[in-house]
Specification:
7 strands, seven-stranded mixed β-sheet, globular, Aminopeptidase, alpha+beta, 179 residues
């Protein structure tokens, strides 16, 4: 069903865009992911420089989004106006079903509450159901993360329940491709 992508997914909004990871993204990736605030509702610790380097190297080695299986990707999120890296976004495999992807986003604390998550979230869903070919996209967050829960609702995802997973109480959301 999903094909191997040979080109960069075309995800662009008026204010934001994604592109492949570059070696020069390392300082920005580390700055964003080493901030304790972006991990408030996760079970992750702030990233060390070594962890950021390992993730960037892995993404580059696996050509995340461009030649990775299906329509999955993990890319830097940039402001279109000034080409500033402000986060990372993606569609990840979810379970064993190739027709389902998990949406994710992490945005630098300096850029919270400006509508970026909602804006890029809508664009990712459009890509996921179009070029990506997914039948369903899911998302989850801590039950306490009201901002992320609100974004998922704003982009059209439906709350399908809360459950305990990995010793964390999570809220699950889903949206299905319109037939």
């Amino acid at each position: 069903m999903n094909m191997i992508l040979e080109v960069t997914p075309s995800i662009r909004t008026q204010r934001l865009y994604v592109r492949p990871w570059h070696e020069g993204d390392m300082p920005s990736l580390h700055r964003i992911m080493s901030n304790q605030s972006v991990h408030t509702y996760t079970d992750e610790s702030p990233w060390t420089e070594e962890r950021a380097r390992a993730v960037l190297d892995w993404c580059n080695a696996n050509k995340m989004g461009w030649k990775w299986k299906g329509g999955y990707f993990n890319c830097p999120l940039l402001l279109a106006e000034c080409n500033t890296l402000i986060g990372r976004v993606g569609l990840n495999p979810y379970g064993d079903n190739d027709g389902i992807a998990e949406i994710e986003w992490t945005i630098c604390e300096d850029h919270w509450h400006q509508g970026y998550a909602t804006e890029i979230g809508k664009a990712i869903l459009e890509y996921g159901f179009g070029e990506g070919g997914f039948a369903s996209i899911v998302g989850f967050t801590s039950t306490r993360n009201m901002s992320a829960r609100q974004v998922m609702k704003k982009i059209g995802m439906e709350h399908i329940g809360d459950r305990e997973q990995h010793n964390r109480k999570l809220s699950f959301f889903q949206i299905k491709r319109e037939q």
